[in-house]
Amino acid sequence: LVLVVDFGAQYAQLIARRVREARVYSEIVPHTMPVAEMLERRPAAIILSGGPSSVYAPGAPHVDGDLFEAGVPVFGMCYGFQAMAQSLGGEVARTGSSEYGRTPVTVTAPGTLLADLPAAHRVWMSHGDSVQTAPAGFDVLASTTKTPVAAFEDTERRLAGVQWHPEVLHTEHGQKVMEHFLLDIAGCRPTWTMVNIVEEQVERIREQIGEDGLAICALSGGVDSAVAAAVVQRAIGDRLTCVYVDHGLMRKGESEQIERDFVAATGADLVVVDAEEQFLDALAGVSDPETKRKIIGREFIRVFEAAEADILAPKIAAGSHAEGVKMAFLVQGTLYPDVVESGGGAGTSNIKSHHNVGGLPDDLEFELVEPLRTLFKDEVRLVGEQLGLPAELVWRHPFPGPGLGIRIIGEVTRERLDILREADAIAREELTRAGLDRDIWQFPVVLLADVRSVGVQGDGRTYGHPVVLRPVTSEDAMTADWARVPYEVLETVSTRITNEVPEINRVTLDITSKPPGTIEWE
Ligand code: XMP
């Protein structure tokens, strides 16, 4: 385990991912965690992240000197580098000359940390203060025109640092520097592989659920719930029941795909509940987005609760389950970024659902099983592949719980859903044909159901609806940019939609980034 101490920069998650790319498991901890508590976790190494502040700023986060006395290898980056230098008796000066962005660096004596790196290369910098003198016992490895000490190491005490950000892609050879520290200086072993992750999680889940516990999992059609279910299925077999609520707001072919591909790949016990009528009745006459979301969430809970009873009744009748038995465990596809953001640790938790799956209520008395709690999205996909889930499922784009219900601007009706389903299927098909699925984060198609415009088709006037194409690129859906999908692909999508979906006579493109726009329209 490598601990990444977060000094409040947005870089900590990226650092943790890079450490894992070097096949060493890592977790993020806040800089406010006492050193003793960090050491209790027996880390193989500790990395101090960058941070927004100067070490001289009032209230700047402090590094406790004990950290360097414990014999645990430590690597400082940017702010962490300066804090380390200061704490160990080096000199950090406010030179007034800052470096931001791509900066040439000169390797003067590579040592272990910068071994095999070109003498001159470019790195990503973002700092005002700089280290003037390294602490005693350290070798200075590199410099820039403005920073005499841009990297140092003390291989005896296994301490090292760089002024730059090795974790960002703009830094040349960044991953190599990370690996030199982790493997060559700290002596970590690269054993964090997908096979090990799956085995470890399976073991942990067996322990949590016990010999005869029963678990239930709501499949949403998304990657996370499918992979979480597959891991739990591997751990406890058919004591897991998956429930897929078909609310009629799914995309074309989606329900069939879950029923066919997911079951084929996992052998999971899947109960499909056809609740289209119930959802559409509840949504009749509603066009306010928040009201739609609430209704969908509420109906989901009703269906889910009824399903639990329906699943158990026949098993109790058949005598395989005792009277009064409960589905005590609820599987959720919570990911590590959610855990970090809510300030939680990475262990198992008994807290109630975070409304991840269709907004389950607080009074559902389940213990949560969260097999993906320590994983990033890209790792979840690799685990999915490892478990044999089909690529179409593992690489599919995120899709919101309320489904197409929040992509119809106006009232949701079956006719409108059918129209949108056709247009959406064409857009997705053409994106796949162009080989762009993995470059685009999401490609919503939005039906402006209450808007009409005049068009002409053949010899006739048309008066149809517009759709909006909303392709975006993103890393985490927190921010996004409109995707520059090639004109030829957009042209094919537009031509096909207006030709094949008679109710649609206009196709428009949304070129708003997030912020200020959101990805979905409602
Ligand atoms: P926005 O529209 O806020 O969406 O930019 C950010 C991401 O979240 C997805 N999304 C949802 N996912 N339930 C979900 O499971 C929801 O109610 C929901 N609303 C938005 C959206 O598709 C995007 O990936």
TrEMBL record:
The EC number(s) given in the record are 6.3.5.2
The reply on keyword ATP-binding is: yes
A GO cellular component annotation here is: cytosol
Per the database record, which ranges form the GMPS ATP-PPase domain?
192-396
Where are the active-site residues found? 78 (nucleophile), 165, 167
**Catalytic activity line of the entry:** XMP + L-glutamine + ATP + H2O = GMP + L-glutamate + AMP + diphosphate + 2 H(+)
Q: Which domain of life is it from?
A: Bacteria
| Molecular function GO terms recorded | ATP binding; GMP synthase activity
Q: Which UniProt keywords apply?
A: ATP-binding, Glutamine amidotransferase, GMP biosynthesis, Ligase, Nucleotide-binding, Purine biosynthesis
Family annotation (Gene3D superfamilies): 3.30.300.10, 3.40.50.880, HUPs
Keyword ATP-binding carried by entry: yes
Pathway field of the UniProt record reads: Purine metabolism; GMP biosynthesis; GMP from XMP (L-Gln route): step 1/1
Please list the residues that bind ATP: 220-226
Q: Which PANTHER family match?
A: GMP SYNTHASE [GLUTAMINE-HYDROLYZING] (PTHR11922:SF2), GMP SYNTHASE-RELATED (PTHR11922)
Its biological purpose = Catalyzes the synthesis of GMP from XMP.
Q: How does it assemble?
A: Homodimer.
Q: What is this protein called?
A: GMP synthase [glutamine-hydrolyzing]
> Which organism's genome codes for this protein?
Nocardioides scoriae
